[in-house]
Specification:
- The chain has 208 residues and is an alpha/beta fold.
- The chain folds into two domains: 17-132, 3-Layer(aba) Sandwich (Rossmann fold); 139-205, Arc Repressor Mutant, subunit A, CATH 1.10.10.
- The protein has helices at 25-36, 48-57, 76-85, 100-108, 121-133, 138-148, 153-163, 168-175, 179-193, 198-205; strands at residues 17-21, 41-45, 62-66, 91-96, 113-117.
- β1, α1 (25-36) and β2 (41-45) form a beta-alpha-beta unit.
- It is elongated.
């Protein structure tokens, strides 16, 4: 049985949809539980066919897929990487140590990150956050939105922290400023973006 440590505190966007494709039920359920605990929407499937069906009927912000999805030895995960890469969805691939050469091939085919089994919860968090900052991830949508609304560098920084779910007090600490100043920036950002709340801001950038 694979053992994992508990997930430490990390920041995620207010909402995100992740598709996990893993034939090992222990690993699949563990990943789902960890990400759901961070208020992410997670769907776990165990086969290539089920993954394709999910991608056809719903939109996802990230995909986490194992290289091998059956005992046949067929690299089904690689097939999915090729297909999803064309949709612009950031893909993290999972692999055992013996499969690292194949996993690197997946990176060359468009995957944005690699999780070597067995991995810890902290590694999962960091890899997913990094994937979302890739050009194919959530970061691209944020950049386009910020450019379109002509936000200043400081407003852009505050907006990114808002999207990560930080409170005004937490933003003040991270941005090395005061809470009243953060409130002023948030109000200005809302006016420029024609929104009234963080949730509306997120929904505007990432419409469902």
């Amino acid at each position: 049985m694979v053992k994992f440590k508990s997930m430490e505190s990390e920041y995620f966007p207010l909402r995100g949809k992740v598709l996990v494709v893993e034939d090992d039920s222990i690993v699949g359920k563990w990943i789902s539980t960890q990400l759901k605990a961070k208020d992410l929407e997670v769907t776990w499937v165990s086969t290539l066919e089920a993954a394709r069906a999910e991608l056809e009927k719903d939109s996802y912000h990230a995909l986490i897929v194992d290289i091998y999805l059956s005992k046949s030895g067929r690299r089904e995960g690689l097939e999915l990487v090729r297909e999803v890469e064309e949709k612009g969805i950031p893909v993290l691939v999972m692999s055992s140590h013996a499969d690292l050469k194949i996993a690197k091939e997946a990176l060359n085919r468009g995957a944005v990150g690699l999780l070597e089994k067995p991995f810890e919860a902290e590694e999962l968090v960091k890899a997913l956050n990094k994937a979302w900052l890739e050009p194919k991830g959530l970061g691209a949508a944020v950049d386009r939105f910020l450019d379109a609304h002509q936000l200043t560098p400081k407003e852009r920084e505050i907006t990114r922290l808002l999207l990560k779910g930080l409170s005004n007090k937490e933003i003040a600490n991270v941005a090395d400023t005061t809470e009243p100043t953060v409130k002023f920036y948030v109000s200005t950002i809302y006016d420029k973006c024609a929104v009234k709340s963080r949730t509306e801001l997120f929904n505007t950038i990432f419409p469902t």
